[in-house]
User: What shape does this take?
Amino acid sequence: MGARCVLESVMEERIKSLRMEDITKRFPGVLASDHISLSVEEGEILALVGENGAGKTTLMNILMGIYQQDEGRIFINGEEVHFKGPDDAFKAGLGMVHQQYMLVPGMTVTENVALGYKQAWKPLRLDLSMVRDRVMQVSQHYGLAVNPDAYVWQLSVGEQQRVELVKTLCLGARFLILDEPTSALTPQETDELIDLLKRMKDELSIIFISHKLNEVKSLSDKIAILRHGKVVFSGSTDDYSSRQIAAMMTGHEITLPENKEHDFNGAEALSIRNLCVRSDRGFLALDGFTLDVKQGEIVGLAGVSGNGQRELAEAINGLRSVESGSINFFGTEIAGRSASFIISQGMGYIPEERNVEGIVPSFSIRENFILKDSDRPPFAKHRIISRKAVSDNAERLRDSFDIRCPGVNTPAGSLSGGNIQKVILARELTRSPKFLLAVYPTRGLDMGAIEFIHQELLKKRREGIGILLISEELEELMNLSDRIAVIYKGRIQKVLNHGEANKENLGILMAGLKEEDDNE
Assistant: This one.
């Protein structure tokens, strides 16, 4: 079956309209959806936006049958539908790419797709070759690079996101719900996905959840803004600027800060020399990596996902073994040392995998705030924890970082992705680190939260904290960094000063080209 036929075979019955009326959902202490009404017509793309915790994902989980609404009705092509679970939603033609990945780490990409691909389940056997062919056809058709034989645990966050999208398309979705689909993609991959979704409008209707308002403006026909579980605005996207949309989301004007500070002239904080580190697949993900970061300096690390960023962050924090090379932290060699030792030296770490490395999902928010300091004052004396100190700290951080939750005793894993990120940021930024390694710190955050986090990072810089900022958001890197280093295949291509960097030369370097090559 050709790649075009793959798509045509699942488009026999179009979803011409989808409507949600007065959807209401309550959780203990929270009115998550407050009489929400939305509609999407054939060939439309609806952008659903709002601050972290506004209720966007909850509403889509109701649409997919994961949650049951307390009140309200759902209509497809004018007929009321009742979804008892995700299988019912999928049979109706709905498919959702979740912000939190629904993949089995110990299985290959093909095996993950096969779990829901019922045509491949033959009597007494599973036709994995059929599934593999479908994965290859769909991924090639849409330009979504996926290795069908790779194990999910070996993949970067960006690669896993692509697998989720390919899986949903393979299984025959006729109406797509995309929850922050570009949060883990590079700028180039994001542009490709936006172009893909525009082409797919002829065949699919789409609900697109995003905090990236340039994507919302570029892609969507209509926009609906949620705030505290209510629709506060809906209308044509073209009628409003990104700045106006951001103001309606947050209730105030958004201005992202820029690093216009003088050179701090700090001493060397982190010095990495000729570092070689292997990936989970066994090849050298870092191959002679060298970089320095001074106190009171933000060094941005730009690069396409999968070029060694993950391995670098884990090696610095004692979570991955080092083949060779040196990591010197304020005069102490930390290559190969334990994570607890490195924490004790003053390292702050905002990890890429927030649900795996950043929090303990079953622990409460208040417990996650003190994960690294539970045996130290003011939270403990003689290893006896002070409940009052822990609770006071949690309430303070919840308020100052605007973490949307029923209470500080709520399990951290039950929060939205953006609010989980705020829990990690609150803990790491307020525990007085000597240095901060921030990996995609604003991924999944709304514009108001991004503004706040950028202000906090610049505040730490003024306090003399050295920061290594790993990000694929080029505007973020250019706004915040004193210097930007570009990584490609585990090595530094070039280090640019603040005034030298622009999207064009960074893009050239991220693609593995030298700027001189471009001028020849």
Notes: Residues 447-462 form the longest helix (16 residues). The chain has a mean pLDDT of 89. The radius of gyration is 23 Å.
